[in-house]
Amino acid sequence: MHIDIITLFPELLSNIFSHSIMQRSQNKGIVSVEFHNLRDYALNKYKSVDDYAYGGAAGMVMQIEPIYNCLKDLKEKREYDEIIYTAPDGEILNQQVSNELSLKNNICILCGHYKGVDERIREHLITREISIGNYVLSGGELAAAVISDAIIRVIPGVLNDETSALTDSFQNDLVSPPVYSRPSEFNGWKVPEVLLSGNQKLIDNWNIEQSIKRTKERRPEILIR
Length: 225
Ligand code: ADE
Prior knowledge:
Elements: E1 2-7, H1 10-16, H2 20-27, E2 32-37, E3 50-52, E4 60-62, H3 64-77, E5 82-92, H4 95-101, E6 106-110, H5 119-124, E7 128-131, H6 141-152, E8 185-186, E9 189-190, H7 200-218, H8 220-224
Parallel strand pairs: 1-2, 1-6, 5-6, 5-7
Antiparallel strand pairs: 3-4, 8-9
Bound molecules: adenine.
């Protein structure tokens, strides 16, 4: 998969993509990522990419031309399966959306800023709008990183068997069971006996029971779906 990210802050993102699973996916050659600085497409020497909103609304708006020109350049190199805009009023990111996007070949993510982008970009150039939750961030970079991470970890081959994304919370509409490691007792706090039993069938059953119990307690809404 190739991910192009259009941003005002490429340095902010490059660090996030240079660690852990995101980095490993690139080292394995499964994912490639490029950042494109929108200011390279600014129309004036001040490198500004925003302007006042028509109608006198407060806040600046990301202008249409720099984004249009940037996308035009990128589209000459690649055909995109999705051109995503990060927006608080977009469809909410969840595991199902992440799984679906992980099957795509080429994705472009446009990071929003200020009061947002000129609406004509959303109407004519964007194919999908994604929110990472019902709260407003200062910019779309963190959202782009969250979306990319959620997508990348479920691409086949990115995680190895032990860390398989299939055992993540929300795959199977259940949250994960609790996990423990050595020592088996600390401060008088004990690891549940069954996990030390060596009986894999009992352990599997316990894990399923715990997943269902936790989901009922913490995320009842996903059980009802
Ligand atoms: N930009 C600002 N807030 C956002 C959010 N919650 N999700 C995605 N992009 C955003």
